[in-house]
Each structure stands twice: as C-alpha cells, then as structure tokens.
Amino acid sequence: MSASTDRSAPGYVPRLLSAAAFLTNRATEESLAELRLTHERTLILRLLAESPATEDQLSASSGLPAACVRDCLVALQPCGYITSGSGGQWTITASGESISAQATHTETQLMLLADTDVEGLRAELHALIRALTPPR
User: Fold this and answer.
1) pLDDT digit string, tens, across residues 122-133
2) What is the pTM of this model?
C-alpha cells in the first residue's frame, strides 16, 4: 500500500482535507458563476443587505482592496443587483437580495452534500490523491 492510499501514513489526512477544501471551493465557484457571481461579489451583496454603504465602507468591512470592491460594484450594478444613491451610497435591490439568498442556499447545499456523502467524498478524494501523487 502506497503512502497515498495508507490512511495511517503521515500526510494522508492533511492531503485529504486539502483536496476536500479544493473541491468544495471549486464547486462553489462554479455554482456562483452560474449566477454571475464570485465570492467577492457575494460578500459585497451580503454587506449591502445589512445596510447601504460607500465603496470605502465596503472595502473596510470586507477587507477587500478598494479596486476589487469597485470592480464588484461595476459588475453588480448592470445586473440590477445594486443601485447607487446620493453621497456615493450603494444599496442592494430586491433582485440583489434574491440572488444573494440563492447563492447562500447553493453554498449551503454544497456543504450539506459534502457532509452527508463522506464515504463517497473520501473515495473520490482518495482517487484524486492517487492520481496526483507521483509514482515512486
């Protein structure tokens, strides 16, 4: 049994967890892309759902660089998810609230799927690790 298949081998669990995180992140990114969203855009929508904010406030609250926040706002506005108001305040629209809720639901479903199908996930990750492990 090689180190990539032996569950007691050093590094097996960290590699398994790393692969699980990668696959979950990838699935989330693909699901968000179908909604014309990214992790950053979803974060901006969630912050605006709490209260209207300026670009600077969104940058401070999100921890995202100002340029990234600006790119998100520029992408979200033509979709009808946000509107700009007086004083540079951005506000989420009803469509934005709906799509944000849909994104949250999708992410939750992906996490539940990963939690409920542990053996299937373990088998898939095991195969992935085996395929990525160079032969000795």
Assistant:
1) 666 666 666 656
2) 0.64
Contact predicate 62/44, CB 8 Å: yes
What the block records as the tokens of 126 is 């095991």
- Specify the amino acid at residue 130: R
Q: Which two tokens stand for residue 50?
A: 């709490």
Structure token digits, residue 46: 């969630």
Phi-psi region of 93 (alpha: psi -120 to 50; beta: other; left: phi over 0): beta
> 119-125 — which CB contacts under 8 Å span 24+ positions?
121/20, 121/23, 122/16, 124/23, 125/16, 125/19, 125/20, 125/23
Domains of the chain: 12-130 (1.10.10.10)
Rounded mean pLDDT, 27-39: 70
Strands (E), the chain: 82-84, 90-92
Tell me which residue of 106, 100, 96 sits closest to 27, measured CA to CA: 106
